[in-house]
Amino acid sequence: MSQPAVDMQNLVKTFGGGRNLFGRAASEVHAVRGISLTLERGETLGIVGESGSGKSTLARMLVGLEHPTAGSMAIEGKPWSELAASGTRAFGRAIQYVFQDPVASLNPRKTIGDILDVPLRLLCGYDRDHRARRKQELVDAVQMPLDTLERYPHEFSGGQAQRIAIARALAAEARILVLDEPVSALDVSVQAQVLLLLQQLRDELGLSYLFISHDLAVVESISDRVAVMYLGEVVETGPAAQLFAAPQHDYTRALIASAPRLTVSDSPL
Amino acid sequence: MTQSVTTPPSSSKRRSNWQLLMANRLAAAGLFIFGFILVVAILAPLLPMPDPNMTDQPNRLLPPLSQGHLLGTDHLGRDILSRLIWGTQISLIVGVSATALAALFGSLIGLVAGYARGVADSVLMRFVDMLMAFPYILLAIAIVAALGPGLLNALYAIALVNIPFFARNIRGVTVSIRNREFVDAARLSGKGHVAILFTEVLPNVLPVVVITMSTTVGWMILETAGLSFLGLGAQPPTADLGSMLGQARAQLFTAPHASIIPGLMIFALVMSINLLGDGIRDVLDPRLRSGALDRPLSVTRIERKNTPAASLADAPVLVVEHLSTGFANGGAVTPAVRDVSFRLGKGECLGIIGESGSGKSVTALSLMGLVASPPGVITGGAVYIGGQDVLALRQQELIALRGARVTYVFQDPLTTLHPLFPVATQIAEAVMAHNHVGKREAHQRALELMETVGIRDAAERASAYPHELSGGQRQRIGIAMALANDPDIIIADEPTTALDVTVQARILELLQNLRRERGLALLLITHDFGVVAQVCDRVAVMKDGQIVEQGDTASILRDPQHDYTRRLIACVPELGEGHAFLDRVRPLFEETRP
Fold first, then answer.
1. Which positions in chain B touch A222 (Cβ < 8 Å)?
2. CA-CA distances (angstroms) from residue B516 to A268, B513, B520, B522?
3. Which helix (H) or strand (E) holds A245?
4. What is the ipTM, given to two decimal places?
5. CB distance A101–B181 less than 8 Å?
6. What's the CATH number where A30 sits?
7. Low-confidence ranges of chain A (pLDDT < 50)
8. Per the CATH hierarchy, to which homologous superfamily does domain B24-44+88-290 belong?
């Protein structure tokens, strides 16, 4: 029996708090309140929720950008605290992150080649020739032309930039990808293409995805299981088809009812 | 998403930095004057001039244009031209080195403080605040007094007192860059903090350092001269612009040329550097770079080649005929909206849908001449509101229509509402802009409007600031402002894109109700077919600045005629479809890929 890719138990994150210069207690924000979730290997777990539900905070804790206030988490069987102690590189090798705004996640003053070079050099430790070969493979894997490597981020559209960001996440050869609203900033046709690419990469490379989005239909199209977050808590978890067909929690029902649909309602406007 | 539409597409015709700098005449003049002074100062040792320190008492205080002394001599009979050139060289060296030192240490402090935040930030910034607490020429004098007079000590003093200027500027920029996603991405790629600071953050801060340096060099030269004038900088017999001025002060009335000449030199030097520095700042600042360096006009430039005759048989509220808008780019105009025609009747809702860059937002802004100009220019067509061609109106009349008969609701109310005024005041302002009513009456009207748009406890929320409201409530305030003067037409540009789905549903419901109750015509710009399906009677699909298809919403969704529409609709995942969606769209993209 293999371990789950990610195992979270009672994870809590509170911002603020503590005392300021004059000893007054600062206000606290409970971003994540006791979440327990598991992501199995090769699985895509969708996380839906509205703004302020704590889904991005959860994602940032997973990759080590935030420290949990309480609770425990294990990534591929290794406890979070052990990974944190050995530095960000240990995280980078196990788990990678794809940001919502692809253009903002690429340094405007570096070529794509430079950007892809960093994880290959620091996380994989490849020599120059190996790195050059890997970069070509990565660009090819995300279906971008080869001259991509010499160009700068601003020369690409949102969809192309997101492909490059995905290539960077793949470069680290991590087996788990946290995708934080990866298609929300994209046009629908581009969104569909990126979703197809993600699905193909997952099947070819055996990746596990934690797919965060506010768009129920997008989550449903790619996820095996879905967790619904509301005000820092998971209110409902279940297989994608089942959860959307027969929602148990009131909030899930409200979400589904509000989702815009293409079918024109019969009620007179 | 929609903002990107309004910036003109980049092209090879975009002017280079050098051309932009030369286009700014003052900056060009500054460059040439400064360049000339610089060359002369550098060539000082090679020029055939007398020794600047050779005294010649019999020939003291000779006037300019004397034999052998072009600019005359000073009180010790030394050649002023020679001293002026050597003095300029020294002033330049000191000024530039002081700037370099201040920039180096100031930027380092700013970078570290801005990146580390927390305790390091507090400690470093309090040190900087301490330096700033003294009037800074006094601080410089105190430092020189402690170190002893001399050119080198003056240099240190000036560099030190200018550190805060750099540190504060650079810290601000670093803080904003540090929160950018690419910094997090670099961390996840395995970079350490030091590597991130110097390879990721620094390249993005560098332009700001250059800009700050170019605007402070002149100031530093002036301060060096000031210290030398007081006798704390260059020591005799070394010539320096400030000390020349200081020594000639005693003969100001008998031999004014001895002090006026170095004074003029300081003026020319500092002025040219400041003009050049301002020019460099304007060129490097990306915001000033995209468009021309001018303020936008209050109405988009209108240069219509064709003005179609009105065919206003049934005269709906809004008729748009063959409208074309483009962006001037060098000599050519890049079209953004091409030959767009549509009609909107009373109480009707027309959706304009398209992907980013399709020209839907530019279309919406063109109707009231709101496209930023330069570079925007309306190149053709007509917009009839109530049968009147608004593009033919005089500027003042067009401006009067805005916010009165035609109003806009934008995507993010947080950026369109003023952060420093309570919301009710802002609504009242919209009322007063078009009606001659008193403040109290306008406030009363604002409260009524807030109730109309479904804000509970309007009287209590009236004094709230925009940041105290949720996104949905802010958008309601935006709609209340749009309603302030009983408009005929509301143009809503992605009004719900920044909102959560549950809030979006309520805002759309509100717009529907208002339309029904008041007979408003609604022009809804969106990228979301779901929103169109829910709200719009008719829909126009835009692609590359053109409307490719328009018609009844239900029939277009059911049976799209144009390939592009068909493809767009196919790419929208439907709830309940599940994994079947990806299988369904896969063939769409396989056939297009080579």
1. 579, 582
2. 11, 5, 7, 11
3. helix A240-245
4. 0.88
5. yes
6. 3.40.50.300
7. 1, 265-269
8. MetI-like (1.10.3720.10)
